[in-house]
């Protein structure tokens, strides 16, 4: 198993600590990737939360059908609602009604979305929350960016992001829905830990579900990382890319997960509550990695 070779401030924990950290993990699919899996039941524990990414141009019928299929196979579907691809309130209410009626959906990830120009009335997740379309949902998640988001704070700071998170924190305190922050993936533990501590210091106490890229070829991870705006932790991949002996070996999140697990074990009140996997190298390989690291 390929591991990065860089100095650690905490010892890599035993498998039991990693297993505890991976408890209640979630994973992300798209309709087109889900369609390539004959049956999710041999791959994932029953009841696993499966996010369904809504990429611009994906018909709502495909999204709902994927959610329905996951529900029937015993999983908890959590579709994305990207504000900037939703035309208007009527469209939003139609989507919610379809998900609830056809797939029993009661959990959702609300986010601005990756497109620059809104397709209609919505620009951000706060507007989705204010629409009241999700009243009665048991769980609402929002997006987080451990290494910043220049689409929101163009100067590289976090003023706008923090204002939005404070608004959502206040909302979480007055709603019955469980709320959490699910993040973009990163590749280095220290910036993630610093970011989580920064949120806590600023009164943001919603649980964090940290994004982790599943096993994949280095070239694949570099492509997605650059496209998704991954920040300083990209250097972990760049450093590995310089070692020609490792270029063809799959990159695995073993060391990142182990360091975060060690920090959580040493600091039980640390804000990360769960791990959310982006299966960039395929759902099957990601599920296999999880199974290998959660064995008793």
From TrEMBL:
Keywords for the protein's UniProt record, in alphabetical order: Oxidoreductase
Keyword Oxidoreductase: yes
InterPro entries, alphabetized: FAD-linked_oxidoreductase-like (IPR029041)
SUPFAM superfamilies documented for this protein: FAD-linked oxidoreductase
Name assigned to this protein: Methylenetetrahydrofolate reductase
């Amino acid at each position: 198993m390929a591991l990065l070779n860089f100095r650690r401030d905490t010892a890599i924990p035993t498998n039991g600590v990693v297993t505890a950290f991976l408890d209640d993990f979630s994973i992300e699919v798209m309709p087109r990737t889900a369609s390539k899996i004959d049956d999710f039941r041999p791959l994932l524990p029953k009841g696993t939360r499966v996010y369904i990414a809504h990429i611009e141009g994906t018909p709502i019928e495909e999204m709902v059908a994927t959610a329905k299929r996951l529900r029937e196979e015993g999983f908890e579907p959590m579709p994305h609602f990207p504000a900037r691809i939703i035309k208007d309130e009527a469209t939003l209410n139609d989507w919610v009604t379809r998900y609830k009626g056809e797939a029993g959906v009661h959990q959702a990830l609300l986010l601005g979305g990756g497109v620059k120009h809104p397709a209609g009335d919505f620009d951000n997740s706060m507007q989705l929350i204010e629409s009241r379309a999700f009243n009665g949902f048991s769980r609402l998640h929002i997006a987080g960016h451990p290494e910043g988001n220049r689409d929101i704070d163009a100067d590289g700071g976090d003023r706008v992001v923090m204002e939005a998170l404070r608004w959502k924190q206040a909302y979480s305190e007055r709603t019955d829905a469980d709320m959490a922050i699910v993040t973009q993936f990163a590749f280095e533990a220290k910036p993630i830990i610093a970011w989580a501590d920064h949120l806590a210091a600023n009164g943001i106490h919603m649980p964090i579900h940290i994004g982790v890229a599943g096993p994949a070829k280095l070239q694949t991870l570099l492509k997605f990382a650059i496209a998704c705006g991954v920040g300083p932790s990209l250097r972990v991949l760049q450093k590995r890319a310089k070692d020609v002996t490792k270029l063809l070996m799959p990159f695995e999140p073993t060391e990142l997960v182990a360091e975060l697990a060690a920090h959580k074990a040493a600091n039980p009140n640390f804000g990360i509550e769960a791990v959310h996997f982006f299966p960039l190298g395929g759902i099957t390989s990601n599920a296999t990695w999880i199974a290998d690291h959660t064995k008793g």
